[in-house]
């Protein structure tokens, strides 16, 4: 029980003109209405000064100098607030060389903090004279500034208290900021108060014997609790000791109770707890942080802790991470119910975030940068117009730290507009016009510095990134000025030409390639490549950019090409260049090949480029050999990782060769191939112990990379089979493993050529199959990948069928050994080729793929190198499972057998854990719910996971989720309707109502919702009356807000489906909602709306028309008294609309049938073309002109014109012409609309025999029997004009034809079934 008085110390001492490392209010001789937030100086200055500028006890603090966040709200001694009776102020203490703040707590014996910690510190009690005494002490100390005397007096007073309160042993302790332990307490109390910790404890306990044990316990309500207990035992005394951080009061006007919630020491303690290695403590800290996230001032409090240099860096780091996450989640909340960040907190964070970034250490700056990115994307420029001025002011400050922070922020700001379209780029033009002049001056100054440090490289790199983001999609108008652009190009040219400093380069290869100066070189290459590739060709430029392109091509393209050649000469000389730099340099050369101006400059040096730079890069090298031997798995990963291709010099070399022979093949292809032939010849002639294996490897890579060109160009095309037999296939037996792997890869590249001797194809395929058992892992992987091409090209599957079990066995051995999605591609190809023949292996395949998936997933989760190979392989496993399920869809009995294997994957991956594979998992769920004979209860357990995902994050997958949900409703209707726990009907409506009401969602995002409503109304006819009104209400509410025609159609079809479900009930609901007339007017306007071409705007699909026909026709069955008056008077319009829809439906079906026949004919023609002559193709590929870029431009223009002629544009057609999904099945598929309407029109009930093919035909039949009114239909027919009478007559005849066709189909079906039963 607390018996003393709590005293809160809120002043932070600072001395002289030096800035403290702390962060807090500035004490001043007179009260200040708005204290300033003081930030620490740079780390380098702190080290140099050795912690000077910190106040000792009794020393009066002076004003602080240094950078500050002026105006940041704070509580402290600088304001006008006077101390309460329970508060006393202390100037500050110096412990371990740090300025601290303290909170003094007087407690007596009592329970641990876990039991008593919930008591509010403001609700302390004690004798009245205690408070008066302390107020007097406080006043005296404030007048003298002597903190030490105040503390001694408090200690003496507390020592006397033990005799006044019998049994109560009071103790006073003062704790340094964070993590201060017994040593700090002892130092503080002995050096500054004049007594040791042990003496203090002994004196407080009336005992001169024994020693003290002190341990620190984290507490939520308080920063730390100290347990002081005698060594010999006895009752302990809990002392609560606080580290008081400078306060930023985000809400500026919080009450005492609110401040308790946002107490900064408490927040620091919780952040400390979130770092705990104890999972329970860490979880408790995270939960408490989540409770705080919406509290006023919380983000500001986090920022306060982040910028406090006297706080442990780990606490500041976790605070910065949490600030980043909360900002990303709550600055612009995704969930409407979330309160988000208050406007006051937003304003405070915006005001001080840039200053915080300027002074933050790198580990924290990166987190604050992400926070800045969030704020910029949400608020700039509307809510944060002053940001640009603040950045510009810091750029002009002449202070390197401020310039760096400003550049860092400017990079984030410009990156917002990096990919923005023209109509969204207006703000970036203002940014460029404001900052680029000063950026250029800074750039030139930095380049003029002699012997620059790596810190200078960091500044230059930021300038390069800003230029990149500002000019990525469009050249700023400012740079169209030739003089200004030339100055920028001079700077970049300087960077390319100057050698990278030798001093300071790391020796470690991984660190060396990311060293600051090499990154500057990389970004310079990036920029020049982008400028030339996108903006440097006048023929490909926009009219407004042609002048710029001509200037670049004339003045700079050639100049930079020479700089690139100089840079690449290092490769010839055996010097060091990072892989990424080589890759980017070769990209510029590839672009230069296609441009006449630079190709003419490159041409004289082309032999040097080809044979001294390009080809050596293509050959197997020392690094490859080391990786092959030491880490074959990593060798395989790098070889198949498309991300690695962005950094690989070898990939860039291959791309250069490919571009050269494609654009300038006439003069270069033969020369290059002659060189490769010479390499092969020298290899064949060399003795076995001196064969140049690595050169042969490069030659094979070149041949394989040029396969597209060689397979279509004579005379090379005719010689390919001989080349393979002489130079490729023999290497399957090479002693060099990398040559065996390369032979398998090249064989796969040419597996689809026409072999004159089919035995060569068979021999190659069997060698590839044999290589699946090679001792070297990379050989086995390359062989599996190559096998895919052989399986696709194999004309006689009997060659593979006998060895299929062996193949599958080797596959799964390899999949257990390596994670590679290309292996799965081969497996998919085999499954597709053999289709239902895979049935005996299906279960085993799924089990092996599932095991491989879990392994890949575990690898992806534990991988610390940001390597995506495991994740990609996991996706491949799921895709292969989907392929297997599709291949055995005709064998439904297999699906229940595979369910136990696949269910755990579906259960896990339908949560947030499966966001990267969600689409693939939904495909598996779709197959399992569609092809399985019945949907098991285990499969039903997946429904809540999909609905929860939709509610939280999976709106982008709504179209994919639609399929399995439709399957549940249509194939397990009874369970959907009768299950109460969970209530599937309720959860479905909740999900769809949320989606329909979300105005932030695009119309296209909502389209699956009305489709699901249709599934419910059609499959549950007569059994979901209570849901009809809710579904109609949410659909009509969304219809009023909808802009896209397709969604309008779907929402109106909800009305049509409702009428078909129960016309009378639906009309009553529309009347109740008061929308009957409005809805039918809109519906009829949509029915008659046409485009300029005469095509309908709405209800384009056959299914759309059919739904409308059935809904309106069912309306005609209602007796007159069941219809509203306005509908009775317009019944003839309903009748005519049905006729119109039926005619359009009939015409569309006829066109679809005709189109199907034409497609079959085109397929036959295509097969003939494939088997025909390739002369024209070869001629086109072989015909390269010197100005290949001009030829390409003409071809592109011709293709664009042809594409335009095939897609005539209709001005008023803003939506796609959606077509029917051939695989989609609906209950109304068995209802023929012609027969249905014909029977109604003739005053007859629908034909029972035909109509009962529908699951709900009996309901309509009984309804029609009781409601048909022949006289009414005769009257309607009689008022038709001649045109509509002709339409009605024609439709009646067509209905009879359809009736006979259906009868015939049913007879044949029954006979077929009888025949099968007899067999």
TrEMBL record:
Pfam families: Cse1, IBN_N, TPR_IPO11. It is found in: Cytoplasm; Nucleus. Residues 285-359 form the Importin N-terminal domain. Residues 74-87, 115-125 have a biased composition (Polar residues). Coiled coil: none annotated. It comes from the Eukaryota. Residues 1294-1308 have a biased composition (Basic and acidic residues). GO terms for molecular function: small GTPase binding. Residues 1173-1191, 1211-1222 have a biased composition (Acidic residues). Belongs to the importin beta family. GO terms for biological process: protein import into nucleus. PANTHER family: D-IMPORTIN 7_RANBP7, IMPORTIN-7, 8, 11. This is Importin N-terminal domain-containing protein. It comes from Marchantia polymorpha subsp. ruderalis. Keywords: Acetylation, Cytoplasm, Nucleus, Protein transport, Transport. The keyword Nucleus applies. Residues 1-91, 104-140, 1152-1222, 1292-1319 are annotated as: Disordered.
